[in-house]
Every structure is written in C-alpha cells, then in structure tokens.
Amino acid sequence: MDKQVTITINGLAYQATVDTTMTLLQFIRDEAGLTGTKSGCENGECGACTVLLNGKPVRSCIILALEADGAEILTVEGIATDGALHPLQQAFIDHSAVQCGFCIPGMLVASKALLGRYPNPSETQVMEALGGHLCRCGGYKAMSEAIQSLKQ
Amino acid sequence: MAFHTVGSNKRKIDGAEKATGATVYTADMRFPNLLHIKVLRSPHAHARILSIDAGAALAMSGVVKIVTGADVPGPFGVAIHDQHPIARDKVRYVGEPVAAVVARTEREAEKAARAIVVDYEILPFVQDPLAAMDPSSPVIHENMMDYKTLPFVRRVGHNTYQHFKVRKGNAEQVMQQADCVVEGDYYFPPAVHVQMEPHCAVAKYGHDGSMIMYATTQAPFVVQTTISELLEIPYGRIQVIAPFLGGGFGGKSDITIEALVACVAKHVPGKFVRLLLSREEMFSGATHGRNIKAHYKLGFDRAGKLLAMIGQCVQASGGNADYAINVLTGTALSGSGPYIVPDLQLDVYGVYTNTQPIGAFRGYGHPEAHLSIERLMDEAARKLNMTPAELRMKNLLQAGEANGIGQVMHASNGNVRECARIITDKLWGQPLPKAKSHCLVGRGMAAYMKTPCMPSNAQSGALIKLNADGSLTLSVGAVDMGQGLHTALSQIAAEALDLPFERVLFKTSVDTFSSPYDWQTVASRSTWGSGNAVLLAAADFKRNLKTEAAKVFATTPDQVAYAKGAVSFNGQEIPLADFATGLRNLDGTAITRPFFGQGNFVAQGVQNPDLDTGQTNAAADWTFGCVGVELEVDTRTGETTVLRLMNAIDAGTIINPVLATEQVAGAMLMALGSATSETIIFDEKTGRVRNDTLVDYKIPGIEDIACQTEVFFVQTPEESGPYGAKGIGEHGCVGTVPAFLNALRDATGLDFHDLPASPDRIITTLKGGEPK
Amino acid sequence: MILNACPYEKPTTLQRLLELNQTPGAKLLAGGTDLVLVMKENKAEPALLIDIKNVPELHGIYAIPGGIFIGAAEPIQEVVEHPLTQVYHALVEGAGRIGCYEIRLRATIGGNICNGSPSADSVPGLLLYDADVVVAGRSGTRVSTLESFLLGPGRVDLQEGEVLLGVNLKTPNPNAKSKYYRCSRVKGMDLSGISAGIYCEGKSNFRIAFGAAWPTVARAKAAEEILNAGPYTPERLQQAIAATLETVHPRRSSMRASPEYKRAMVGELIQMGIEELTGGACNG
After folding, report:
1. What are the structural domains, with CATH classification, of chain A?
2. What is the band of C253 on the pLDDT scale with cuts at 50, 70, 90?
3. Residue range C188-209: average pLDDT?
C-alpha cells in the first residue's frame, strides 16, 4: 500500500514512501521537517495548516500526501527570499498583526495568494481570503490593515 | 514624566521569527527516539472503574507501556488535593484520563488505547450548578471532607467544596428600605479558551532521577513544584522549559497535562515521551471557563444611590476544583462591581459537577459577577428613569470610598468615572445611526473593575546580563504567550538603563533551571510584577556597574555617573561593553569582576482573603474601565452586527499603546464570542461535550469583528507599578458581555439573562417570548 | 488520525475508474474535504481509495445543447467564478457560502451533492434550475433529475459501481432571477442552520428550495403550487408559508439551529426572497 511520492516544497524536492494515513501536513512537518506550518484542529476549520499547492491556498491537514505527489508547495518558510522578509511579513510585523503567532503561517500564505489574485484587494476580498482563518488573539483588523498597506 | 522608550510603539521582539515560521513551539521540537502518549478517556460522566484490561493492548505492535491510575501517585493539588493524573476508582467527567498508552508512534498508541477494555459501573450524574448543590443529587467526591486543603477552603458538604462570604453592614435590612429594587438570575455558561496551539508536553525521566519537561505552560514553576510533590523528585532536579506559547488565555496556567506526562515519563526512564492533545481533547480533556449561575438583588434610593446588594454565585466547578476555587475568589473580590456598596451580602459557592474542571479563563471570575451587576444597573436605570450613564455615575467608586472588600480606593487605583465619562461622550455623543430596513439599533455600556487574583506572596524575578558588545540580555520567569510581555519588559529595561530599545535582548523561553522564579504568567500581573522586577534588576545592575567603575576610576561608586550605556567620572568615559569582558591594569591584572543585575519583586501588604466577611486587603491593585457597544440587529434573521465597540480603561501608564490596544481589543472580541455564539453544549443523556470541534464551537472570525473598535487609555499612574503601569491582558473581557446585552436590550427590548445571544435565540425570543 | 492504510489509485480514464469502482468498499476521493475528515474519525475505512481528480470526463464547465454541464470533480470555487454559471444566481451564491476560500478551491460540486447532506449549500440553487445528474456505470451513462437522485441524509441514488459525472443545467428563462439565503451561527465560516433558494421569473413561476429543513435539500412544492396558481398576492404568500410549515418538523437535536428557529426562518426566508426578487415589500 506504500507509494513513493515526490513533493516539492519551497523549491526543494522531498521524496518519501507514504500510505493513505499520511496527510500533506504530516509530510511537510515530519518528512520535510518544516514545522512553520501548524496543526491547530486537524479538520480544516482553523486555517493554521494552510499552504499553497500549485499556487493555491489549501488546508494541508485534510489533503493526503499521496494527492500532492508531483505538486509544488509553498509554506511560510518559503515566503522570505534571499534572507529578506517579504513585504507582507514586514507589514504584519509593522501593524502588530503578529501576536501568539500560531495562526500567522496560514494567514501569511493565504494573504500572499490573495495579493497574487488581487494586487489591490478590497475589504471584501480580504475577508474572503482570511474568512476561514481563526485567530484567537483577535488580530484580524491588524492583519487586514497590513494587507491593505501593500496596495499599489 | 517624559520617557524615551516607555509609551512608544516598539515592534514586537518576536515578530520576525513568528512571521517566517521559525519560532519553535513545543510541538515543533524534535527529540531522539521520541515515544508517544495517547490517553484513553472516560466515555461516562460519572462512573466507578471496576476493572481495566490492558492485556490485548499491551501486546499490540509498537506498544511500550500502559499506565493506569493504579500505577501513578495521587491525589494532588495546591488548594484542594482532589485530582488524579489518571483517574483512580472513579471517573467524574467525560474525557477524564483513564489510561495512558506509550508507543513508538501516535498511531500505534491510539490503536492500543482503543483496545483497552474498561468495565464501569455507571452512576447518575449532575452538571447543573444549582442541581449539584441539592442534597438529592449524586455525590461526586465522597471523601471531600478528608481531602488535604489550604486553610482558605471552606467545605460545606455534599458537592459544595467552597463557600466564600462577603459581608458589609446589613444588606437584608437595608434592602427592605430601598425605594427601587431590581433582581434577577443570570447565567454565564461554560466557555473554552480555544488557543490556536493545542496543549503539548514532552518529558524525560532520567536514570539519574532528574526530570526534564518542555511544555505549553503559562506556569513552568507551578509545574516544577507539582511534579516534585507528586513524584517525590527533588525540586531542584526538575527542569521545566516553556517556549513560546500559541495563546494561553488562562487555559495553560496551573496544571493541564503536565502531571500525567510526568507520571508516564517516570515509567519509561531514559526516554522522551510526548503528549499532544487533539482539538477534540482540548474541549473534553482540558479545562473550561465560567459556568456560574448567579442571583443578584440591588436596592437603590429614589435618587439612584445604591444602598444594598445581595448576591449569590454558584459555580459548576467540574470533576475537580483545585483551580476553580481560585476563580471563585476572583468572583468574590469583584462581586460588588466597581461601585460604592454600603451594605453588601455576597455568597460565592463552588460545587463539584460532572463536567470538565473549571480553570483560569481570561477575566478570572470577574466577568461572571459583572454580567449580573451590569445588566441590573441598566434595569434599575430604566426603573428610576435615568440614563445608564447617570445611574452609574452616581455610584461608581472614587478615591476615599471603600470597595466591596473594604479597601479604601486611592487616586492611584484609577479613575473609573473618567472611563465612564469617555464612553458616555463617545457612544452617546454621536447621533444614533439610522437602522437599515428590518433592523434595530441600540447602545449599551458596562463599567468594570479587575484585580490580579493571586496568592499574597506571588513573586516575580528578573536578571540582566551584560554582553561583550554592550547589549544586555534580560531574562524573567514570565512567559510570552502572544501578549507581548517580553517586548514591554524590554521597553522597561531600556528606559531604566537609558539604552536604545534595540540593545536590550531577551531570553524568550523560560527555563526553571536558569530563569528567575515567577509564580505564573496569569492574572494580568506580569507587566506589573515582572516589570517591577526588571526595574529592581536595572537598579541593581547600575549599582554593581558603578561599584566596578569606581575601581577603575579610583573613586567611590557615588561619584560615578551613568548615562546612555556608559559610565563617566571627571570627564573620563567607559562604555558598558568593556565591563563584560573585564577591565585590566596595564600589567594585565584584573580590576573589575563580572556582575549581573538582579531584581525580585513581591507585593507588600497583600493579605489572604477572609472567607467570613471578605473584608481584607486581598487585592494587590485594581484596574477600572468602561465598555460601550453600539449594535444593529436584523429582526428577520436575528443577526447582530456590532457597529462600535469601545473600551476606556485606566490601566496606569501604557508601556506600548499598540500592543496594549491589541490586548484590550482581542479580549473584547473573545467576549463577543461568548455573547453571540460560544457555549459548550453537553449531551443530556451522556454528559459529553457535543460541540467538541471548531465546526460546532464557533469562535469569531474576521467577518464577525466589530465595524469599529476603539480603545481609550486613561493613564493614571499606578504607584505600585513600573513607571506607573499595570496589567491589561484580561480586562477587555470583563464588561463586554453585559455591555453587549444592554445594547441588545436597548435595540430590541429583549432581556437576555444568559448566553449566547445567538441569531437563533434572538429570533425565537422575538417570536415567542423568553429566551429559550 | 487515520489509523489504517488502504490501497490508493488515481485513474486517468473513466473506464479505469469504473473498473476500480467495482471493488467492494471502494470510496471515491475528490476534494477530500469531507471524506478525509471521515477517514480521520475512522468512521470510514475504505477498502480502496480512488482519487478521481485526474479523470477528464469529470472535469470542465461547458455549454451543451440547451444549457451547461458542470463536471462532478470541478472545485466549488470554479462553479462560483466560471462565466457560464453566473446566470444561476442562487447556485453561485450558495456555492460561495461553502466552507471558506481554501475549502472551496478543493471541495467539488460532485462531493457536495453526493455527500447527501440535507444542508448542502450548492444544492438548493441546482434544484431551482431543475438540474439533472449524469451518472456513469459499467452499462453506460444515465441522466436523471437531481431531485430523484437525493434519497435521504447521506444517501444518493448511486448504484453499486456508479459514478456521478456531473450535472446538466438548462439555460434559464431570460427573466429568471434567484437568491440564496443562509442562516448560520456566525457570519464567517459555518455550516448552514437553515437555508433557502428562491427563484422567479418576474412575478411568476416561483420556485423555492430549502436546505436543512427536510431530510434532503428539496423544493417546497406545496408553496410553489400556491404561489403559481394565480397572480401574486401577499395572501398567497402567507398561504404558501403556512403550507410549507406543515411539512417542516425538524429534530430537536441539531446544534446548528433549533426547531423553533428553523420554523421561524422558513417563512422569513420565503418572504425575504420574494420581496427582494420582485422588488417590493409584500407583507401588506
């Protein structure tokens, strides 16, 4: 029942033998060792595990690693390039949107995808993009402002 | 006073690490040959354990050990020794641990846990607080009267393990003379913290008799003490490390899973074992908050002066009450609200129930009391033909007046009248917005007060270390769980040592081996307590620095000047950095010795609560504030939209306004969750938590936030606080729920005495009378 | 946590999919937003997991004679955004309320239908437009009404080995307008407590569908008959509501909506929808 899969995460290809019990989230955290992506609820409700799969935000806790064979994944660790923070990351910090930080990896990749779709997102579009992401610290307003600050 | 760093919006020191996913939380840590724990939990709310057959489970692949209640010590506790790390003889709520499986993988542990056969004798159960007080209800702790307790536990019997009385004057008699009496029953249902990070603990019991534990805890030193007492491991041999926390809100204070993990670790010496709770276990196998039923009666004279208050609060504390009992103290201390109450009679009871144990939950007993009082203040205002603000203004505490526990307020306690005035002006100063079609709009307010509810000897420590580049590393025993404490403390240190903020670095994980002692990071006490410790450490640092510098300058320490990271004397200046590696004579001999700055703080003069009258100096300080809510209700769908949400708070000097605003706004949003959607639903037949997922326990998302949130700071310096500061983490929770319900009443006429005011209940009440 | 592994296949042709689907206990995996959850609860332990995302016949949103076809494996968000679906307002609005953006990128229209949830948000819109389902089996392809396809909670009319290929939607009348309303506990991501799709052509040919009112998503036929029996009047509306209420007897056990609330909202949603679509208050 084991199958070998190759999943490219932040530009690096990871190969592992997996079965239907392994989620993409487990692959990212345990096989690739990238622990920036968080497990908050394991049923797709909280958004902490969000990563980009071929450029689109998905809940990695409810996708099997097998389904992602051959896919390109972007996690929070892949957002900063060449050692420099991505403008979104800087904006989150500057707007005090980062509190306990646990929801932030999911929030950031979802925001990155949003700005890819709409470089000048409306408030409604921000709400759509972050609508499935829970932040118990209550930093939604600051996150929204951080994203809006990047409008061109 | 002019400050250079205090009061400025410094960026959080942990922002970049968190925004890149580099911050290591407990569950992110990797350990060699890690073993995993899965817990078999009780499916029954109340049952006797007749037998446990783990034979088949033990034989399963990958299983290393199965530990049951018989294998571990207990009971343990601080105030009342009433809990077991793993249930023994009886289970008292659905979700109580019955056995712990240790296996190579989580999967193998889970499979084995399912193969354990437990034979139960099912007992009748009780979940309602008032029902549990009734002598006809099932007894949950048969031997309660024999338990080891602290002196402040006053057991009544049956299921009632605590009765805290507050008495002032003769409230019964005065009430009879009141011109206007209002009274009612109010219920704050159980709520869950929903920190985004679930509980996790990793431990290893060494063959040398030591214990190391990494845990998602707000209370590493409490964990250390508990493990030491429970497992009889010398205190000093236990190292507890608390890395960054993904939210706490009280749910990671005291003991959660740590006792169980330590006990299990002792059974597999030399191996790291880890327990990571699932989200479902965060609902069924961790603490809840609130769950208090109250009856309050307030009597006023014709002019609106509050004459007497009689209150009774009964908390359904759950299957054990070691933490709930302290929450009750919070209710008792704040049980008269922020008002002058000449005659007061308050009875606060804790009763065992077959529900998850109540623990600390942001607000700590205060929102429970305020729900009743602030709803009734509005009702009295209507009866007396006054505005909500007018009636409150006549009765709010001020300097020279005594609060409910007899502490005479002084100016430094803060100005609640100013807070109420701000909310009155801001909220009612604008015309009421025109309601959309089929909608009603309304406004409400609630004043509040909160104290850090803590033992009289709750301590905080700070240590400042000098680095060779002239920077300082600050370490404290208090944990940053997202509230920004370490940033605020860095600001205090930078201010005290006249250094740029960037030159103060922080040891961000707390380690009981090396961090200064701190009681625990709770009660909104850390900016105040640890902040004071940092000030003391900074003073000590300067003193030591001057002593060493005096040797170099060949003078006395009092002649040495310190400014901006350098010492000077007679025109000569030496930068701080030089003292890190040490200054020498020309012949190479050392002149200066290395030094730390250390500071340790404990509040002076705080007394134990008095359980017969409440009249003692049991609160270290008070913070006052007022909440305002303007909302719109769609009478067709029952949906509420909070148009304006505001809080005026006098939390003394604000160290970092942006971080402080986030704390107050975040707490208010959490309270809005309680007001509109959050409540635990127990299954009537089995007593289990039905909504144990985020699918059915709905916390606010981005679409649920208020259209406009404003926080106003009235900065009356607190004389016992660092630069006049005090805590701010919980206060947004205290008055928000009654302010919301008062606004809902104003808009619709609907008078909710309990929660949540969901669209469902708003519609069914609009159509059919009383809230169901 | 998924406790037990099973074989996994990802066929690239319909023929292979139908062959694999003969395996007793096989489960079809599309977006996985429900199936993976059920697997994690270990309530479903498939004998074979067939990932259907690479089967071309299950993909695409395109014009067919007299209407459009939506492939069963099309993600919900495609249904929300595709130019060809925009005339089916209640479908687009309902589909847009499913889960959250990430879930909609993954969840499929076929999954939303085949789950058989009484509260499926995409289904009222489909029913309003008299959608047909296209089902493939070993013996060929059959077309039947979506209405007849929905059998009960968690049950649809798929015979052993059959696969839903997609749905056919007829080109709507140019005057047709529709709305979708949903009542939930929070404004954000939530499941429906009760929902309604309302359709009309001008002030006639009213159609009404409810989610979470009955064991399946279904049309309020009695109400439609009353409303469509003559010119529209407020009295007719009240009769239509009353007739609907006679058939709505929700369970008390729901955590998402009380029976009282559901019943109150049945009338309210019909009235809101008709008022909004016909452009005037009708509570006179």
Report:
1. 3-78 (3.10.20.30), 87-148 (1.10.150.120)
2. confident
3. 96
- Residue type at position B582: G
Confidence tier at C252 by pLDDT (50, 70, 90):
confident
Of residues B8 and A83, more confidently modeled: B8
Contact C90, C169 (CB under 8 A): no
Q: Does B119 touch chain C (CB under 8 A)?
A: no
User: Bridge partners of B634?
Assistant: B439
- Is pLDDT at C284 greater than 70 in this prediction? no
CA distance A112 to chain C (A): 13
Cα distances (Å, whole numbers) of residue A64 to A49, A112, B313, C21, C32: 13, 23, 50, 20, 8
pLDDT at residue number C282: 44
Domain that holds residue C243: 176-278
> pTM of the entire structure?
0.97
Q: Is A10 on the interface with B (CB under 8 A)?
A: no
pLDDT of res. B769: 59
Shortest alpha-carbon distance between residue A137 and chain B (Å): 5
Q: Which of B17, B23, B666 sits opposite A139 (nearest CB)?
A: B666
Beta strands in C150-234 (DSSP E): 150-152, 155-156, 163-170, 176-183, 194-201, 204-211, 218-219
Quick check: B15 and A35 CB within 8 A? no
What's the confidence (pLDDT) of residue C279? 83
Query: What six digits make up the tokens of B35?
Result: 């073993």
Give the residue ranges of chain B where pLDDT is below 50.
772
CA distance B174 to B185: 21
Neighbouring chains to A with at least 3 Cβ pairs closer than 8 Å:
B, C
Closest Cα in chain A, distance from residue B354 (Å): 25
- HSE toward the beta carbon, residue B289, CA cutoff 13 A: 27
Residue in chain A nearest C97 by alpha carbon: A128
**Residue of A3, A22, A67 for testing the chain C interface, max C β-carbons within 10 Å:** A67
| Secondary element (H or E) of residue C32 | none
Residues of A in contact with B667 (CB under 8 A): 138
Say whether B34 sits in a helix, a strand or coil: coil
Does residue B646 sit in helix, strand or coil? strand
Q: Which residue of A has its CA nearest to B243?
A: A100
pLDDT at residue C283, rounded to an integer: 41
Candidates 3.30.365.10, 3.20.20.70, 3.40.1190.20, 2.30.110.10; correct CATH number of B15-22+457-602?
3.30.365.10
Decide: B400 and B408 in contact? Cβ < 8 Å. yes
Q: What number is the ipTM of this complex?
A: 0.98
Q: What pLDDT sits at residue A152?
A: 79
Please give the residue of chain C at the shortest CA–CA distance from B702.
C188
- Please name the member of B15, B24, B668 whose beta carbon is closest to the beta carbon of A93: B15
